[in-house]
Amino acid sequence: MTDRMIRLEALLSANGVAHALLGLDARLLVVNQAFAAAFGLLPEEVEGKALGELGVPAPIASQVEAQVRRAALTGVPVSAFGLLPRGEVMLSPVRDADGKVTSVAAIADTDAAALAAARAEAERARAETERVRLEAEKGRTAIGRFLSAASHDLRQPFQAMHLFHHLLMGRLTDPGSRDLGEKLEMSIEAAETLLRALLDVSKLEAGLVRPQVQGFPIDETLGRLLNEFAPEADAKGLRFNVRPADAEVITDPVLLEQLLRPILSNALRYTESGGVLLAARRRGGTLRIEVWDTGIGIASADQSAIFDDFHQLGNPNRDRRHGLGLGLSIVRRLAALLGLPVSLRSVPGKGSVFVVEVPLAVERAEALPAEKSSAA
């Protein structure tokens, strides 16, 4: 920090009044010590945070964000409540050399007594938050140990059942007995698939899955999915095409692949003729990964419900050959964990398209033009 910046910080903090500079998205860019102290934090712990990350309730955060946008659009100072734990805040637009509003300055209208009370309240809230965090972490650790043991111990009987089934099939000769043996194998596989899905959902619900975000070429992921699902498409006489993008994206590659897999599986399961297209298309700073199919389609009334646990369309008898109804609920959880928007368009009787939007690596996004989306 330069001497000038140090003197400016001292000036802004000397009178105990909270000051902050907010981006047009209401994210806190720079704050002085008085502002940070109102939350019981240091300036570096506040800067770069959204209001919700500081414990500001969502309705109040939305109101403040609306006032920030209003100040930026009108160029006129406005007041707002809730940006700080106590008191009113004046929001004033800040312009650059060209007169364009680039940020909004926030100055608290509060006295020293209110600020001291806010500090004490913030400290109490911070201590309670830390206590709850430690309790939750302890709970996650216990759940993690249980799920790890369950994943190992519960799968061992299935491995034994597969082995015994293989030995049994070697001894069965008449068609009727072999047919029963094949149905037994289908039941074992269905139970094993259900167990695996339930364990995956439990790990996501318990917060045990931590994304490892990195940049990577999307075509490698698309290639693996092509190799995995092409045999299934061939067996049903369906076309399965992949349209690569020669682009790098930023997310967790393993979790992204886990997210796309149930979408592709459903597309192939509910498509009897035509085919499935897995395409990657640039759109601004994002890459749209699209899964098109010519299957049965989904009515508008059912499109939100398909992401619920155990929800299935057109399978009232719970035929396990049509899946378990957990695939898209896992998609929903993984998308929320990774912060990736997932959307759906569908026409009953014609097919569906699922879209997952993934951030492009900056250098690739700037170097290559956006591609317009087209029909499969």
UniProtKB/TrEMBL annotation:
One of its GO terms (cellular component) is plasma membrane. It comes from Roseomonas genomospecies 6. Keywords: Kinase, Phosphoprotein, Transferase. Its EC number is 2.7.13.3. It catalyses: ATP + protein L-histidine = ADP + protein N-phospho-L-histidine. Residues 149-362 form the Histidine kinase domain. Transmembrane segments: none annotated. The lineage of its organism: Bacteria, Pseudomonadati, Pseudomonadota, Alphaproteobacteria, Acetobacterales. It is an enzyme of class 2 (transferase). Gene3D superfamilies: 1.10.287.130, Histidine kinase-like ATPase, C-terminal domain, PAS domain. This is histidine kinase. GO terms for molecular function: histidine phosphotransfer kinase activity; phosphorelay sensor kinase activity.
